[in-house]
Specification:
Strand content: under 5%
Shape: globular
Number of strands: 0
Order of helices and strands: HHHHHHHHHHHHHHH
Distance between the termini: 72 Å
Helix content: 55-70%
Number of helices: 15
Largest sheet: none
Structural class: mainly alpha
Length: about 425
């Protein structure tokens, strides 16, 4: 295969085009980060609040629901994949790409309990295919799959900060193997590596922030029997809980598909209501329930003792409910909220005899992400990267496998329905005039 000239040309093309795709991913993530900071930090401070008031998520959710519904019902591609369906290897077509980006901008900074990974996969794949058409390269079925995977890898490596995570994630999502694995993943790995270099260097040069996976966990002590046993038990419970959160998202997706305008807005407002009720009950910021949870996870890891038990229980309950509502109604990805829920549960259970904060968070994040994504290998690589220490790798692997098996053995719930077709208009009565 490497001796075929067309494959070598495609490999070089993927490496070169990984540069503009990574730059586009960088600026899109910067835009999301700046909008989130503006809406949830700057504006409340300018109005005299140290944290957003309890009602702050509600008007943003109304705007988000209306904009997402407008995209879903009016633009090609329906704003991208429904998050409750998980991650998909295919990206957006050229026609659907604007709708995917608008839906992500209307969801993520305005308080959706979702992450940016699904829109980024679509962005990378769609841009790669667009650049292919601009240079008038041949559009074959195999070439489209190869270029789409490479573009997605280049963009997704910008989020997770590692080309290895991007390559493994796309390999597991696509489910390829044998020579097909080599054919698809070699360009994807090349594009993600080039993209990671460009993304890291450009971010350092500009000083702009897009968020970080480094949550600052200390090095864990040597694992003992208590860490392993509690991690296994936690993985079963977390896997079952996250599974039913995802099932709830599929149920919500069915309700939204039947009546998009009404139910999308109602679900967005209900998710915002979870954040508002959390703020009223705990006197904490509603942003801890709203948004993806990436920055809140870093705060939790930096000072877990600053969270009272009641606040941890409340954020788990309300964020899980809001997560389920957003999975079926708005647009984004399922990764980061699941990581936060697993990490928060690990902190909550850390006082158990023989279990510490670091192994508890590591096992919780591995179990929750594996249950949400059904991609255990990718989740192990991702959580190992987040934790940053090899000492927790055994419990991460065990928790991911046990949670994956648990979710596979449970009833899978409803599928993702198609949107209802518009009601046919009644024919006009015949005019009495001749």
């Amino acid at each position: 295969m490497l001796r075929r000239p067309e494959y070598r040309r495609a490999l070089v093309f993927c490496g070169l085009v990984g540069i503009p795709v990574s730059l586009a991913a960088f600026w899109f993530l910067v835009l999301l980060h700046e909008l989130e900071h503006l809406l949830w930090v700057d504006w409340p401070h300018h109005l005299g609040w140290s944290d957003p008031p309890w009602w702050w998520p509600l008007p943003q959710a109304l705007v988000s629901g209306l904009l997402v519904t407008l995209v879903v019902t009016r633009l090609p591609g329906r704003g991208g994949h429904i998050p409750a369906a998980g991650l998909h290897p295919g990206g957006a077509s050229k026609a659907a790409l604007p709708g995917v980006m608008i839906a992500a901008l209307a969801s993520l900074p305005l308080g959706a309990v979702l992450g940016p990974e699904a829109p980024m996969i679509a962005l990378g794949s769609g841009l790669m295919l667009l650049l292919r058409d601009l240079v008038r390269a041949p559009a074959t079925e195999a070439g489209t799959a190869l270029l789409g995977a490479a573009g997605s890898a280049a963009a997704i490596s910008a989020i997770f900060g590692s080309p290895l995570v991007a390559a493994v994630l796309l390999m597991e999502v696509a489910g390829v193997g044998g020579t097909q694995l080599f054919a698809v993943m070699l360009p994807a790995l090349l594009a993600s590596g080039v993209g990671s270099i460009v993304f890291t260097g450009f971010g350092h040069w500009t000083g702009l922030q897009t968020g970080s996976l480094d949550i600052g966990l200390p090095a864990p002590p040597i694992l003992d029997t208590g860490d392993v046993v509690w991690s296994l038990l936690m993985a079963v419970a977390v896997g079952a809980a996250i599974h039913y959160v995802i099932v709830g998202g599929r149920v919500v997706a069915g309700l939204v598909a039947a009546h998009p305008w009404r139910n999308t807005v109602l679900c967005a407002l209900a998710a915002a209501g979870c954040a508002a009720l959390y703020a009223v009950l705990t006197d904490r910021s509603p942003s801890e329930v709203s948004l993806s949870g990436q920055s809140t996870l870093s705060q939790l890891a930096a000072d877990p003792h600053a969270w009272p038990v009641g606040s941890l229980v409340a954020v788990l309950v309300f964020k899980a409910l809001a997560y389920s509502l957003c999975l079926g109604s708005l647009r984004g990805g399922p990764v980061f909220p699941s990581l936060f829920l697993g990490g928060a549960l690990g902190v909550l259970l850390a006082p158990l005899p023989g279990l510490g904060v670091v192994p508890g968070m590591a096992a919780g994040m591995a179990a929750s992400s594996a249950a949400a994504l059904r991609l255990p290998v990718s989740c192990v690589v991702l959580v190992v990267l987040i934790v940053g220490h090899p000492g927790s790798v055994p419990v991460i692997v065990l928790a991911a496998v046990v949670a994956f098996v648990t979710t596979e053995l449970l009833p899978q719930g409803p599928g993702i329905p198609a949107f209802a077709a518009g009601r046919p208009r009644k024919p006009r009565p015949a005019s009495p005039r001749p």
